[in-house]
Amino acid sequence: MLILITFLIASVFTGGIVYGVQGLVSEEADEGTLVDGVKLFRIEASQWNFSPSAIKVNPGDRVRFIVTSADIMHGFALNEWGFNLALTPGLRLRHEVTIPADFPEGVYANYCSIFCGIGHPYMKGRIMVGNPALFLGVGMGKILPYGATVVMAGVFTAFIIAGRRRQDEADT
Ligand code: CUA
């Protein structure tokens, strides 16, 4: 009984954290606007995020980014496509990428490459290419954290049980 309660409490606790994090990361991906065969994305950087923070493209797409900074200097970089732009407030930068048709589907992280304060290390965005790892129509990114929650709760419970066993042995 105690084991069950422990497992439930641990589940609710870690589940709550996961839910909070999900709220932050599960913003709908922007699919851009198609202009003359090029997918156009307007991205605004500010302390400490990119807006939109998630975009979706497909292998073979031609993509144009128009990037600005709303406050101070930021960077806009994506290692996989080899670009690293320095954004000066008030200036609009234009960058075009043609995604190779055989580019692996997946979720890639663009990031800020210029130090911009305490939030700098967390200033990231997501670029979804294709339809990576969908499970029953839902992105694995939404399922995995919950799976991890159950595993964590299980591990936590196992520690409690092990602790009690040791206590019982010490008592006898
Ligand atoms: Cu924005 Cu570093």
Description:
By secondary structure, this protein is an alpha+beta fold. The protein has 2 domains: 1-27 and 139-172; 31-134, Sandwich (Immunoglobulin-like), CATH 2.60.40. The protein has 2 helices and 12 strands. The strands form 4 sheets. Strands 1, 2, 3, 5 and 8 form a 5-stranded mixed β-sheet that branches. It has a 3-stranded mixed β-sheet with strand order 4-10-9, with no helix packed on it. Strand 11 (134-135) and strand 12 (138-139) form a beta hairpin. Helix 1 (2-25) packs antiparallel against helix 2. The longest helix is centred in the last third of the chain and has 32 residues, at 140-171. The protein is elongated. It starts with a helix and ends with a helix. The model has no long low-confidence stretch (mean pLDDT 85). Bound molecules: dinuclear copper ion (CUA).
Provide key terms for this protein.
172 residues; alpha+beta; Immunoglobulin-like; 2 domains; five-stranded mixed sheet; three-stranded mixed sheet; 2 helices; elongated; binds dinuclear copper ion
Classify the beta-strand content into a percent band: 25-35%
CATH architecture of the largest domain: Sandwich
First CA to last CA: what distance?
22 Å
Note poorly predicted spans.
none
Mean of all residue-level pLDDT scores? 85
Q: Helicity range of the residues?
A: 25-40%
Rg calc: 22 Å
Biggest pleated sheet: 5 strands, mixed
Strand segment tally: 12
CATH class of the largest domain: Mainly Beta
Q: What ligands does this structure carry?
A: dinuclear copper ion
Structural class: alpha+beta
Tell me the CATH topology of the largest domain.
Immunoglobulin-like
Series of secondary-structure elements, N-terminal to C-terminal? HEEEEEEEEEEEEH
